[in-house]
Write a structure and sequence with these properties.
Elements (H helix, E strand, L loop, with lengths): L1 E5 L8 E5 L2 E10 L5 E7 L2 H9 L1 H18 L7 H6 L1 H6 L2 H8 L6 H6 L4 H5 L3 H4 L9 H15 L6 H10 L21 H14 L18 H18 L5 H20 L3 H7 L15 E5 L4 E4 L7 H12 L6 E6 L4 E6 L4 E9 L8 E8 L2 H15 L14 H13 L1
Antiparallel strand pairs: 1-2, 2-3, 3-4, 5-6, 5-7, 7-8, 8-9, 9-10
Helix pairs in contact: 10-11, 10-13, 11-12, 12-13, 14-15
Length: 420
């Protein structure tokens, strides 16, 4: 039979229970192999219960001291009850100076005390009982997270100024630098918000007109890493120039915000609009290709683009790539059977081949083809090539790259490029 004898407002704070007539402290900590919370208990005495009831600070200090023992138990191990019981008298019944001395020599959970209002400066000086005089029953987990983030930054030698901290608060990255940034002006001290907004305005002006395009080679929602890097570099330079007092963490979070928002815009833009933003609408109107194009991948899957299609050929092709591209499927072809020509894109090698019919097949013989190769600079280069081919066939590709017909010569050029 188990009855709760004493509990506090927070469900996570250790409870005192009576289990078959015996007083025990019960606390949840860690998780088992199935990621379900683990619960630990160990016996206490009436004198310990009296202190736990009356002294929140001692209760929390005991919790902080026992948690490392729970962590040591792991997902399946048993709590070292002897070690837990051995903490009861020194933490709950000893003089404050003795408690402070004890905590200098044992492991304890810092975040738990800070979440419950511990004075951080006093903790740092080893005055544990004094630090817990302002303790609160209700925890503030965010306070502990922010303190932990400050400690991680300190280990890297980073000290935030008030504006640095406000910028990280604004982007929601104060605690976790890997969190997708967002705009949260309500999280910033109103006194500092105008300064934060001036920094943001500097970044927005620096990247005005820049965009991050889609990169279907890596999937339907993937975006161009080269575009991201260019935007981040532009924003970083502008912010550092206008606000040299900012630390790297603050500058990076601003460029991360600009790039993330540009990425969101790219992912929500229909493919046709994405092509228009890239300045490619040449396959519409009077100059539109009046033919059928065939798209194929390295797995033999084929898709036809018809002249009556309401969508552009380039949009249809890149959607096909986004649907089909994978680590083992990196070669895509666009063929114009009517003209007897095509291009083959080699994503794994950042190269392309243009293929034209040199001689038509006669009397059952196979036609002869001329194959020329060129290196490609990222997804932007591929977009230009595809657009030019759709618009004017292989002849329109002449200005897009240095075309090499000798395979050995091309391989040497590719190796030189890769070695740079």
């Amino acid at each position: 039979m188990r009855d709760v004898v004493f509990t506090r407002r927070s469900d996570w704070t250790p409870k005192v229970i009576r289990d078959n007539g015996e007083l025990k402290l019960m606390l949840g900590a860690g998780a088992d192999a199935n990621h379900d919370p683990r619960t630990f208990t160990f016996p206490i005495g009436e004198a310990h219960l009296a202190v736990i009831r009356e002294d929140l600070a001692r209760h929390l200090l005991l919790w902080s001291a026992v948690l490392p023992l729970c962590d040591a138990a792991g997902t399946r191990g048993r709590l070292d009850e002897n070690a837990a019981v051995a903490l009861l008298d020194p933490v709950l019944l000893s003089a404050p100076a003795d408690v402070d001395a004890l905590f200098q020599h044992i492991r304890w959970d810092r975040g738990r005390l800070i979440a419950h209002g511990a004075d951080i400066a006093l903790l740092e000086r080893g005055q544990f009982c004094a630090a817990m005089r302002a303790a609160t029953e209700t925890p503030d987990g965010k306070r502990a997270q922010e303190h932990d983030a400050d400690r991680r930054r300190a280990r890297r030698g980073v000290v935030l100024g008030p504006l640095d901290a406000a910028i990280l608060m604004y982007t929601g990255q104060y605690v976790h630098g890997s969190t997708i940034p967002r705009r949260t002006p309500d999280a910033v001290d109103p006194v500092l918000l105008p300064e934060v907004m001036r920094v943001i305005a500097t970044a927005e002006q620096a990247c005005a007109g820049m965009r991050i395009g889609l990169d279907p080679r890596r999937g339907k929602r993937a975006t161009d890493k080269g575009d991201w890097d260019r935007m981040a570099k532009t924003v970083d330079a502008a912010v550092r120039r206008a606000h040299p007092e900012l630390v790297d963490d603050a500058v990076r979070t601003v460029s991360f915000l600009m790039c993330s928002q540009a990425t969101d815009r790219a992912r929500s833009t229909p493919m046709e609009d994405d092509e228009e933003a890239a300045g490619d609408r040449a396959d519409f109107g009077e100059g539109a290709r009046k033919t059928i194009l065939s798209f194929t991948d390295d797995k033999g899957v084929e898709k036809k683009w018809l002249r009556a299609s309401p969508r552009t050929a380039t949009a249809e092709f890149w959607e096909f790539v986004g649907d089909r591209s994978a680590a083992d499927n990196e070669v895509f072809t666009i063929e114009d059977e009517e003209r007897g020509e095509g291009i083959q894109l080699h994503f794994y090698a950042d190269s392309v081949a243009r293929i034209t019919t040199a001689r038509e097949g006669e009397d059952g013989s196979d036609p002869e083809y001329r194959v020329e190769y060129s290196l490609v600079d990222g997804i932007g280069g591929y977009r230009n090539l595809v657009s030019a081919f759709v618009r004017g066939g292989c002849a329109a590709l002449e200005q897009h790259g240095s075309w090499i017909s000798d395979v050995a010569e091309f391989e040497r050029a590719r190796r030189r490029r890769d070695a740079e």
